[in-house]
Amino acid sequence: xxxxxxxxxxxxxxxxxxxxxxxxxxxxxxxxxxxxxxxxxxxxxxxxxxxxxxxxxxxxxxxxxxxxxxxxxxxxxxxxxxxxxxxxxxxxxxxxxxxxxxxxxxxxxxxxxxxxxxxxxxxxxxxxxxxxxxxxxxxxxxxxxxxxxxxxxxxxxxxxxxxxxxxxxxxxxxxxxxxxxxxxxxxxxxxxxxxxxxxxxxxxxxxxxxxxxxxxxxxxxxxxxxxxxxxxxxxxxxxxxxxxxxxxxxxxxxxxxxxxxxxxxxxxxxxxxxxxxxxxxxxxxxxxxxxxxxxxxxxxxxxxxxxxxxxxxxxxxxxxxxxxxxxxxxxxxxxxxxxxxxxxxxxxxxxxxxxxxxxxxxxxxxxxxxxxxxxxxxxxxxxxxxxxxxxxxxxxxxxxxxxxxxxxxxxxxxxxxxxxxxxxxxxxxxxxxxxxxxxxxxxxxxxxxxxxxxxxxxxxxxxxxxxxxxxxxxxxxxxxxxxxxxxxxxxxxxxxxxxxxxxxxxxxxxxxxxxxxxxxxxxxxxxxxxxxxxxxxxxxxxxxxxxxxxxxxxxxxxxxxxxxxxxxxxxxxxxxxxxxxxxxxxxxxxxxxxxxxxxxxxxxxxxxxxxxxxxxxxxxxxxxxxxxxxxxxxxxxxx
Length: 639
Description:
Family: Belongs to the glycosyltransferase 2 family.
Structural class: alpha+beta
Organism: Pseudonocardia kunmingensis
Pfam family, one: Glft2_N
Pathway: Cell wall biogenesis; cell wall polysaccharide biosynthesis
Domain Galactofuranosyltransferase GlfT2 N-terminal: 59-170
């Protein structure tokens, strides 16, 4: 294991495994493993039907094999089981895929395919009778999938038993597979990080795709302090590079891995796969992302998708875009899946899959592979801390002609976004970094952005979210201070925002053990229908606040009903936190609301007056802020 932050000697790291040379003897193209055929997840904590479905009879599913009883049918027409041919035809020059397996027993193995409308067809078939470790080879052309469709296996038996194992989907290698480094950024999620590393250490096939695993520890509770760490470090050996540094946020942690992956001469650079510390890792993602990235026609960012950790059968989103002038991210590309139940069926009782190809505009850094060629061309991420860093990098790559592909079937499980409360210190970075993103990658319409800021502030104030309003105003003020606000990597801003929020009691989540007093004051009051006119409703609520009137003196509001137009009808609202782990108490405070309103008016006038010039300053400083030299300064390193 490489441990010291100053140790950057690449000679100490093993080279990437030369698993797939460009050509074999005689000039025949080598085969590149594109994905493994898996019938069961990495743990029983995730649904096996995401990998394979027993559609008829009984079968025993294991990680790399399935055994069918007589009269059974197993299909891999599932999220992890499909070969998503439409993405391969669109973004690569690979003309066919070969499926190999080992079979024992009697039955049939078919290679199936679908079109854009989920209509299936049989591509190839192999009948087996009393097979004994018999090789199976099926070939499918990747030639009718421009707009959508995929391939999968259908395995059936009639009177006999059949075992199929060691399924491999391979394609012709179009070039040598680049070396790939993994960068894991962690901050006081020790057990989660160790679990992620253990999953990688336990999968030799996934490890073969990795040159170095950079673990960048920014927490006060170090990963290396746990007894488990030594065993994992021994298993990964010289592949593991452990670094401790001060907390510079996600961009700071991920960029440290990228920093080491792209040091030295260009032929020594590695692609870098960013990985969150708190994911439930499917190690197969390393095989699929690296294979796809090694096959694209041009350097392409290849992102893994996010499945919800709390609800593991659900896909967060399959393709997304952002609207920085509205400070909105994670918007669904038309035709994409969002919060989709992957174990369900559509209206035709067919499996829920991303059948039609949808092209994303960026990919979250819960798992995302960035080629070294992209880094050399566009530089490093901005030191944005926590929010918008991945989005900004994706849009910067697009501006330079590098696409991003969010690859179905390559996913990890990550904490559900819908179960995170919006009234947290992170909201500062959502607003400030969103404004920076708008300055860099939009027309920066002052009227449009100002209207959005005014809308957010007005709703927060009548909703008695005074700490959140102060957080937003601080974000706008710091944006207006210019690019110098990023000079320390935002460590100072983080401490200051937490101090500001501590002055507002409704920002604190209380455990249910503190739910004391008269139970009648906690009667649940559900929200009525959405207002027909938000403007008129807001004016009415604001009048109530100014005159001291309220529809409800007190009551409990479920998290799903905590809309501003409902909470604003209370004098005191006990609101369930979105995490469902406790509650917050919002109490009307006319004086505080008026003070924040005056401050908001001043800040928005300043934004209108100074915004265009400030945006130009961010654009001018873009190259310096994203440079290797700037990151070396932030890391305190002589590069």
